[in-house]
Amino acid sequence: MAGVVTAAVLGLTACGGGESQSPPGPGSVTTTTTAIGGFDLVTPERTFDRACGVPSTPDAGQTDVARIAVADPSLLDALCALGIQSKVVAVAADPGQIPVYLGPTVTSLPTIGSRPDAQRAAGARADVVLGRSAAQNSPYDARSVVVDESATWQDQFQAVADALGRGEEGTRRLDVFAQQAKRVGQRVDASHSQVGLVRFGADSEQIAGTASFAGSILAAMGVQRPQSQRSPGSVTVTDKNFDDADADLIYVSFTSTEGRQHGTSVLRSDKWLDLGAAGGKRVFVVDDSYWYGQRGLAAAPVVLDDVQRSLNGYSS
């Protein structure tokens, strides 16, 4: 874990402890039917009413922190998964910038602007501030924790849990999710399916690699990827390698409104409809924001739930 997190003060020791709790759930889904470009959304409209985990307590011998400021909204995922979002007293974000998939208990947290001045930051009276860089954390008069954005999402979550005196509980929650992903994979016969991942941008499309967040969830389930999609990084789709996007089943997403417009035109094109998955109606539209845009233990069960709902019955 070296290099994942640095902290000005990490000595959060005293009495305490907690039982292992489950990670957050995916939330409920309404029955609204929606399709884009002729292909169904996996979950047309999701209500994130169970987004966060059961509240955790510090590990034995660790003190608790009362007030947390968050200098990077993406770190809210870890706090939500630990069930301690109520301890957040300030988020460096503009209204509407907190990811919707984290649910109402997180989206309603107080925001102080994406670039708060020293006075607003100090007004939060935080005990600890979580950020991606020392510069982000500098306006706050609080203990500083810097999480390495280049680390895996599991290591980032563990780093936050460690810094907040919940290292053992963090490990337990990661293990619970890993076991859950494996069980779901076995239930839907994941190992006998080859799944493609395609993201549409404003004027391009890319095959998401195995190192992407969605790719990591598929791997945890035991889902296979086509031979042409087994590189860690993304691959730009061209006329020459267009068929590489094909698989038993394809999940597509749109990185923006412009990406949706471009993607819709591709999904309706003859070359797309000639793909085996498209011809067999085995293409599903997913939400790019939590399949790729966010990474963490709160987002992971949502992606897992999407795959469980759609992959079951499509194994080859």
UniProtKB/TrEMBL annotation:
Tree of life domain: Bacteria
Protein keywords: Signal, Transport
Localization annotation: Cell envelope
Entry keyword Chloroplast: no
Residue intervals of the Fe/B12 periplasmic-binding domain: 67-315
InterPro entries reported for this sequence: ABC_transptr_periplasmic_BD, Bact_iron-sidero_bind
Family in the record: Belongs to the bacterial solute-binding protein 8 family.
Protein name: Iron complex transport system substrate-binding protein
Organism: Williamsia serinedens
Upper classification of the organism: Bacteria, Bacillati, Actinomycetota, Actinomycetes, Mycobacteriales
